[in-house]
């Protein structure tokens, strides 16, 4: 089915195809294959009588329904996923023996699940939160899972604190408020009393926590992993995903409004981009540190609350992942996929990062309860594309029928097979790191500096980004009822930057700190979203137009936008067809009632009909709002008069067609800017 279905296929797609079922045009049966003749009425003793137990079809249908739900993920419950492929640009053979990182001709199938962390499955996409970015590479040597986030550091240093951290950020247990939000007392109490959170909180309060799109987020493996090459030499490595569209964000007001107007904003964006052929692309980057340089930095490279500044350890771009196929069934694929940072292939290994070590336990454990037993690797989305075999047997929902009587090792009855593979044959061998020490429960002194990199982040970002952080703190702490917690947090962040702490304090009714500050002056320009890639490609444009438009000009602009990869969508008074002066007909995509500027990246205003006062009023709001969200707005024809009257003329990011020949080009250039921050919004 795969080949004709989507036109692109790979090993994983072929494998999944064996499990895809299409019931269209078929007869209804029970799960036992019996054809069903009645699916509307249960079996009763008389048409007005009681339902009979004998009705096996009713019982089967109802029982299955009663058991349709599985526990949602304890974190990252709300997610959305897509299939794709990864291809290498250059062989990494000198540093890793992982085959999929050696051969530039291999296209490795991938499955990527993006998620929010805190909210439940039914929460909104655009909340302020970390985003999960988990990738399963189906390699010929087994599955490799890169289970990362869109923020390069984490809240805590040792996994034993993870349950505490999650309890603190989740809705408070006595009333389950607030949903999908960190703006409440227990979370900030945790922050103030666990100061290793400082760096992560700076990122969480930044624009990174409200991405414009899953397609416009960076991804990070967060931990330090190891590469091991064929000679057995090891390197420390950090993984990065860089979106080819650049890293872009919503603004808070927009994120808030979207949570109501379209809680599915991010999943819809990903789904539609793939359906429309705007395949999301992410380049894979690696930062590599030689083993000999383990202690060459002023931070511990095993500490997951630290980045390796890109200016010190450059990110080498080694390949690209393209997401080109939506799932067929969200439950079967997105919900049942089981990621695990411990799923590695030869050439990729772990380090002693205490956060990573804890994760190696937690992920299998959580799948056992979530997916109901130890055979979750047999669920189609989780199956490797290479053969897998061992002596594990039985358990809930076992699918394979293992023939023969031998299910143990060592044996003579089956010639001691399945047999172990030597390293030369591709057998995994753990890196033989020398470890010695006393058994202790404690934190290494090298993990003690919680603030320097938080200040580094602050130093690295633009004034606009700084203002957003201040406002995010004000919002979040403004929701904290305990004055003591508010004060503790402000005092804590005085260690990052004194002006930051004072700016927060003045708005949230606590005493501004008098001392503190940091002597860190270093900056890492790569951390600022101002230094990302800017592109108009795939940006959505609301085209506001009613009957009587200027046919040739409008057709020209729309085709220019499409030719440059933008996505114009017609917004008008009502759904149906609108007709130009010379009879050109355009299909309306959105009636104004269901459209809103927050759903688009830019607005192109052609005609504000003066026949319908309500529409005019709504459109005025639409454009005002787009303007206040710093978006590009353009006008031709009657739209121009509108702009003049409403005083938009001459403002930055406002493109007025003085010349129809150059309008589209100028407009597209401004759309690529995404936000015109220097616009004065009062
Ligand atoms: Fe996770 N995390 N995590 N995490 N995590 C889970 O596994 C956990 C951490 C991440 O789309 C759970 O299958 C512990 C860091 C993603 O299915 C669970 C610790 C990073 C996803 C779990 C961490 C992540 C999860 C819940 C601290 C970024 C979603 C459901 C030691 C590098 C994967 C599940 C998906 C999911 C445990 C910290 C990323 C409970 C104990 C750091 C993207 O096993």
Question: What does this molecule look like?
Answer:
Keywords: Heme, Hydrogen peroxide, Iron, Metal-binding, Oxidoreductase, Peroxidase. This protein has 682 residues and is an alpha/beta fold. Helices cover 27% and strands 16% of the residues. It is built from 18 helices and 18 strands. The chain is globular and about 90 Å long. The relative contact order is 0.10. CIS-heme D hydroxychlorin gamma-spirolactone 17R, 18S binds next to strand 2, strand 3, strand 4 and helix 10.
What's the arrangement of secondary structure elements?
Blueprint: H1 2-6, H2 11-17, H3 56-66, E1 79-88, E2 107-116, E3 131-139, E4 142-149, H4 162-169, H5 185-193, H6 198-204, E5 219-220, E6 225-228, E7 234-243, H7 252-261, H8 265-275, E8 281-290, E9 316-326, H9 331-335, E10 348-349, H10 354-370, H11 452-460, H12 463-478, H13 483-493, H14 498-507, E11 540-544, H15 551-563, E12 567-572, E13 577-579, E14 585-587, E15 590-591, E16 602-605, H16 613-628, E17 632-635, H17 638-645, E18 654-656, H18 660-673
Parallel strand pairs: 11-12, 11-16, 12-15, 16-17, 17-18
Antiparallel strand pairs: 1-2, 1-9, 2-3, 3-4, 5-7, 6-7, 6-10, 7-8, 8-9, 13-14
Bound molecules: CIS-heme D hydroxychlorin gamma-spirolactone 17R, 18S.
Cross-link (3'-histidyl-3-tyrosine (His-Tyr)): 340-363
Pfam families: Catalase, Catalase-rel, Catalase_C
Catalytic activity: 2 H2O2 = O2 + 2 H2O
């Amino acid at each position: 089915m795969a080949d004709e279905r989507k036109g692109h296929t790979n090993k994983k797609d072929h494998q999944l195809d064996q499990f895809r079922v299409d019931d269209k045009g078929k007869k209804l049966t029970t799960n036992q294959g019996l054809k069903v003749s009645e699916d509307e009425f249960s079996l009763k003793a008389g048409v007005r009588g009681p339902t009979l137990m004998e009705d096996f079809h009713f019982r089967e249908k109802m029982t299955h329904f009663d058991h349709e739900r599985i526990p949602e993920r304890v974190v990252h419950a709300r997610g959305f996923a897509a299939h794709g492929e990864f291809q290498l640009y250059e062989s990494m053979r000198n540093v890793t023996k992982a085959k999929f990182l050696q051969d530039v001709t291999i296209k490795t199938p991938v499955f990527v699940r993006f998620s929010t962390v805190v909210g439940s499955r039914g929460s909104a996409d655009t909340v302020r939160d970390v985003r999960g970015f988990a990738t399963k590479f189906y390699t010929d040597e087994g599955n490799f899972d890169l289970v990362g986030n869109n923020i390069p550091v984490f809240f805590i240093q040792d996994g034993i604190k993870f349950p505490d951290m999650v309890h603190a950020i989740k809705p408070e247990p006595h009333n389950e408020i607030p949903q999908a939000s960190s703006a409440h007392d227990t979370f900030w109490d945790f922050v103030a009393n666990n100061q290793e959170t400082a760096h992560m909180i700076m990122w969480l309060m930044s624009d990174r926590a409200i991405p414009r799109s899953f397609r416009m987020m960076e991804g990070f493996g967060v931990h330090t992993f190891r590469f091991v090459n064929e000679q057995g030499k090891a390197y420390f490595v950090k993984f990065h995903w860089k979106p080819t569209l650049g890293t872009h964000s919503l603004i808070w007001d927009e994120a808030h409004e979207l949570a109501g107007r379209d809680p599915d904003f991010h999943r819809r964006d990903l789904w539609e981009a793939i359906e429309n052929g705007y395949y999301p692309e992410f380049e894979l980057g690696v930062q590599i540190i030689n083993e000999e340089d383990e202690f060459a930095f002023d931070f511990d490279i095993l500490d997951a609350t630290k980045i390796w500044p890109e200016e010190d350890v450059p990110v080498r771009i080694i390949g690209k992942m393209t997401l080109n196929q939506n799932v067929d069934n969200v439950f079967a694929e997105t919900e049942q996929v089981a990621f695990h940072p411990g799923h590695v292939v030869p050439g990729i290994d772990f380090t002693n990062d205490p956060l990573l070590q804890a994760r190696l336990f937690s992920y299998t454990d959580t799948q056992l309860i979530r997916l109901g037993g130890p055979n979750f690797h047999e669920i189609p989305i989780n199956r490797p594309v290479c053969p897998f075999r061992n002596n594990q047997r039985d358990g809930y929902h076992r699918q394979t029928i293992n023939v023969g009587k031998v299910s143990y090792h060592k044996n003579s009855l089956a010639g001691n097979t399945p047999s172990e593979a030597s390293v030369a044959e591709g057998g995994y061998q753990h890196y033989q790191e020398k470890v010695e020490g006393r058994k202790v429960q404690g934190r290494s002194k090298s993990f003690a500096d919680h603030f320097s990199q938080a200040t580094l982040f602050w130093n690295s970002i633009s004034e606009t980004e700084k203002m957003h952080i201040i406002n995010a703190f004000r919002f979040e702490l403004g929701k904290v009822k305990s004055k003591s917690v508010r004060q503790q947090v402000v005092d804590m962040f005085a260690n990052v930057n004194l002006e930051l702490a004072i700016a927060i304090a003045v708005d949230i009714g606590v005493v501004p700190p008098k001392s503190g500050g940091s002597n860190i002056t270093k900056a890492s320009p790569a951390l600022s979203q101002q230094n990302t890639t800017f592109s108009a490609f795939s940006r959505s444009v609301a085209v506001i137009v009613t009957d009587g438009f200027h046919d040739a000009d409008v057709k020209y602009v729309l085709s220019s936008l499409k030719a440059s990869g933008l996505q114009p969508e017609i917004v008008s008074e009502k759904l149906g067809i609108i007709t130009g002066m010379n009879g050109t007909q355009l299909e309306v995509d959105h009636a104004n009632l269901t459209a809103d500027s927050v759903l688009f990246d830019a607005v192109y205003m052609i005609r504000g009909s003066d026949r319908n006062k309500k529409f005019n009023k709504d459109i005025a709001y639409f454009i005002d709002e787009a303007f206040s969200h710093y978006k590009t707005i353009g006008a031709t024809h009657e739209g121009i008069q509108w702009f003049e009257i409403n005083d938009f003329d001459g403002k930055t990011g406002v493109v007025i067609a003085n010349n129809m020949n150059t309008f589209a080009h100028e407009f597209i250039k401004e759309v690529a800017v995404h936000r015109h921050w220097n616009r004065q919004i009062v």
